[in-house]
Amino acid sequence: MSDNWDDVQAGWDAAIRAVDAPAGRSSHVRAGKAGPGLVRHTIAFTGEPGAGKTMLFQALSEGGVRLGGQETRKSLVPELGHSNLVLGSLRIRVSALVVPGQVAQERDRAMTSILSEHTSPTGIIHVVCWGHNKVWNRPNQNVMERAARDSSGALTPEAIRAWHLEKELADFETLCERINETRAAQRSLRWMIVAVSKADLFWDRIDDARDYYVPGFDAAAHPPTAESGFSTALRDLADHNDIRIAVVPISSQLLRHSFSDSLRPRLSQLDSTGVGALLDHFYRTLKELM
């Protein structure tokens, strides 16, 4: 991949325009059931615990956005789940694996099963959420809160976001290292989508999220011309591998998000039409890469 990230930026901007001026629902690009005898693709869903991997997988499989309710509590069983999908005129058979997020041992086993010397997916959907990860159990919440409190004991959403982003970056760097060192990935991996999940929760700062995840100018950084660590890792991955990359905002479910039980929850800033427009754009991006 060249060092020109204009196409990646354009893909992100197209998603924003789709929300700002939504057209009629594009049902022709939605997923649906298809018969046997199709071209087969293997896709891995990766990302940190609580980033929204399973919610995104379910939205793609079921062809729609869930309104309200609870976040999916745990990832799917770490085995390949076969689904037949139709993306417009593109008829494909997808073997999808959601890498478990909650148990480190399960995550390692799942990653080994999809990225080894002999196996690699065709594409990776790496799910991130700009620090809005869901922390499920109280012990893990306590660990997070202790790490995020400042010297006075105060706890803020920004401090929690920073803690999650540090873990998210380390996880992505590990994934990139595994890709770079795996011969099967160098032969078979063709594309990656960085899915910036839960975008409806931070739509008022969506440009800041873009600057963090898309390589290029980062106006919020210090100095202002610096890239985030995530952008640098993504750029390095593209420089060392012949893969196509997209970075797009996505929302799979309209929910409240609590950084901590002691902090006020954040509410969705989009309605179902806006979130549906993001999902439609994601389908189009997936179709183009496949």
TrEMBL record:
Q: What is this protein called?
A: Uncharacterized protein
- Native source species: Streptomyces triticiradicis
